[in-house]
Amino acid sequence: MKVVYNNLNPIWRPFRISLRTLCGGDVEKPIKVDCYDHHNSGSHDLIGSFKTTLAEFECINPKKSMKKSYKNSGVVSYSLLLQIVREYTFLDYIMGGCQINFTIAIDFTGSNGDPRSPQSLHYISPEGYNEYLAAICRRRDAVSLMNN
């Protein structure tokens, strides 16, 4: 949060912080806020502090609170805009009815060898699938099960 200079009624710029970072995701967990009068010398004066659970509270200076005429050092208020961001999984999309077109490509780089050679990863065997084709079929079968 940035310092607001020379202002008795500061309005701070909005900032973002995750609920997990702020209060561990627990909206009932007390959050302590300290308000200081900033000095370039580094000896900042405490204006007051408060604990809150995401609400509006008076800012109380414990040293001043003993005086009969003292009410508060101000009221701190804030507006809270919560945005819950959900990261969807592949299965969430499928279960939600998302249609996916299935395309697979094989890189026939020369370093993989001649597909007519039994030593090649791309060998086209008359006896069955090569490693690439077997892997593709396994993926196809797994995805097609989700199409029901």
From TrEMBL:
Organism superkingdom: Eukaryota
Gene Ontology, cellular component aspect: plasma membrane
Gene3D superfamilies, A to Z: C2 domain (2.60.40.150)
BP terms from Gene Ontology: cellular response to calcium ion; ERBB2 signaling pathway
Domain C2: 2-68
Lineage: Eukaryota, Metazoa, Chordata, Craniata, Vertebrata
Name by which UniProt lists this protein: C2 domain-containing protein
One GO MF term attached to the UniProt entry: calcium-dependent phospholipid binding
UniProt xrefs under Pfam families: C2
InterPro entries: C2_dom, C2_domain_sf, C2B_Copine, Copine
